[in-house]
Amino acid sequence: MKTLSANAMVGGLFVGAFVIAACIGSVWTPYDPMAIDMKARLAGPSTQHLLGADEFGRDVLSRLMLGASASGIVSLATVAIATVLGTALGSISGYLGGWTDRVLVAVTNALLAFPGILLALGLLAIFGANKYGIVLALGIAYTPSVARIVRGTVLSLREREFIDASRVSGDTEMYTLLRHILPNCIAPLTVLSTSMFGWTLLSESALSFLGLGVPPPAPTWGNMLAAARPYLAQAAWLAIFPGLCISIVLLGINLLGDALRDRLDPKMRGMQ
């Protein structure tokens, strides 16, 4: 009987706590995250406000919970867009080959020459700095990474015996691709999507920190960090708690990604 690794347990614990906080935060918070209470301005952690209050007297815990929901939705939507587009482009490129492959590889390599966050910044100038714009920008920015992984997997599979058998039996190219090739891409896509969720969460936080993400007063962990900068000396908790949330979730995602890779990658299984 296989046992869960330490990476899987710790990573699953951190990611599970993030998912629970995001789900609860979308329907309930201890206080109204948008309500201003100047009497509680910059109040420290206490029984009334467990993680303190910000410069407008808004409860930090409530805003962190709602921010987890907003950041999670943006990251999940981004991963979904990048996975769908990247899988389509990578499978077409790898399976058809020829000039189609050469053109798509050239475009993919050109996009990969730019860091994802830099490419997203350029795309945000087109789509606009809002929730939908950041999802589209990050989704397109991370599509080339998915396309490259899928293309490599398809290239390694398209000349295998079971693919030749499918063609000989009269199956169409589309059926062969959908029935026999793409299911074998699930394992590497699962590992990549897990890591990409962490990249997206960090990128969304960075863009929100720069004022290019979800616009205030809606909270995200990135814009909470940005708003805390003027108050670091007198209210350090305003930056500490969002920063800890980002760090813990990223650590959990990386640990969970490593555990998934060890479980799904045959080469890694052979080394265990």
Could you please describe the fold and organization of this structure?
- Keywords: Cell membrane, Membrane, Peptide transport, Protein transport, Transmembrane, Transmembrane helix, Transport.
- By secondary structure, this protein is an all-alpha fold.
- It has a domain at 73-213 and 244-264: MetI-like fold (Orthogonal Bundle).
- The chain has eleven helices and no strands.
- The protein has helices spanning 6-25, 60-96, 98-112, 116-127, 131-157, 161-168, 173-181, 186-209, 221-228, 237-264, 266-271.
- The chain starts with 5 loop residues before the first helix and ends with a helix.
- Residues 268-272 have low confidence and may be disordered.
- Largest β sheet strand count, sense and barrel closure: none
Computed over alpha carbons, the radius of gyration is 22 Å
How many DSSP-defined strands?
0
Task: Determine the mean pLDDT.
Answer: 89
CATH topology of the domain at 73-213 and 244-264: MetI-like fold
CATH class of the domain at 73-213 and 244-264: Mainly Alpha
Which overall shape is indicated by the principal axes computed on the Cα atoms? elongated
Secondary-structure content class: mainly alpha
SSE topology string: HHHHHHHHHHH
Main location: membrane
Transmembrane segments: 12-31, 73-96, 103-126, 132-150, 181-202, 235-257
Keywords: Cell membrane, Membrane, Peptide transport, Protein transport, Transmembrane, Transmembrane helix, Transport
Membrane topology: Multi-pass membrane protein
